[in-house]
């Protein structure tokens, strides 16, 4: 009971911050779902991008809450720079995963090909002609003409020239 009396002002500010972030989350997720439906993107990909938004907003909420409860900006900057330095070193080792996730997000909003399209990837060493079966966070699932399944990293699909051969070849 003493906690609530002592920190009443911070708790009121916290409720405003949480309400605001929930409204922002709702609006962003609604926008993502509308864009996804308009472009014919699978629900699983839409949910994945919505999860990314939620995680980002939770991290922002934690930062704001620390400030509300009295953390100085210098302290927060030190903590976050230390955390990001450690994460940066760790993520440097797995940069390709981050590259693929980032490419997956970019592909969600701006990728001219859909699941079911037959495409040709112009790669000097390994040219591929296949049907897109699935677009995931890390890679595309491509079905070759001989029936083999190929997983192709998202970051590479954005770096290579791609030709649309047939729209929605699965029909």
Main sheet characteristics: 5 strands, antiparallel
Kindly report the spatial arrangement of strands forming the biggest sheet. Answer: 4-3-2-1-5
Mean pLDDT: 85
Structural class: alpha+beta
- Backbone shape: elongated
Tell me the total number of β-strands. 5
Our count of helices gives 6
Instruction: State the order of secondary-structure elements, H for helix, E for strand.
Output: HHHHHEEEEHE
> How far is the N terminus from the C terminus?
64 Å
**Rg calculated over all Cα atoms:** 22 Å
User: In terms of per-residue confidence, which ranges show pLDDT below 50 for 5 or more consecutive residues?
Assistant: none
Q: Quote the beta fraction.
A: 15-25%
Portion of residues in helices? Answer: 55-70%
Concise overview:
The protein has helices at residues 2-6, 8-38, 43-68, 73-93, 95-109, 154-157, and strands at residues 118-122, 128-135, 139-144, 149-153, 161-166.
Polypeptide structure, described:
- By secondary structure, the chain is of the alpha+beta class.
- It is 60% helix and 18% strand.
- The longest helix is centred in the first third of the chain and has 31 residues.
């Amino acid at each position: 009971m003493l906690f609530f009396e002592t920190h009443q002002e911070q708790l009121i500010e916290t409720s405003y911050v949480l309400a605001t972030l929930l409204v922002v989350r709702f609006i962003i997720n609604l926008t993502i779902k509308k864009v996804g439906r308009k472009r014919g993107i699978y629900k699983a990909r839409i949910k994945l991008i919505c999860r990314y938004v939620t995680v980002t907003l939770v991290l922002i909420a934690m930062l704001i809450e620390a400030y509300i409860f009295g953390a100085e900006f210098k302290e927060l900057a030190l903590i976050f720079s230390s955390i990001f330095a450690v994460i940066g070193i760790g993520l440097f080792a797995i940069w390709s995963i981050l590259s693929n996730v980032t490419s997956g997000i970019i592909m969600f909003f701006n990728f001219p090909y859909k699941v079911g399209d037959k495409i040709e990837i112009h790669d000097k060493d390994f040219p591929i002609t296949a049907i897109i079966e699935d677009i995931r966070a890390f890679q595309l699932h491509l079905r070759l003409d001989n029936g083999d399944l190929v997983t192709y990293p998202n970051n590479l699909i954005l770096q290579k020239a791609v030709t649309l051969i047939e729209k929605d070849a699965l029909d």
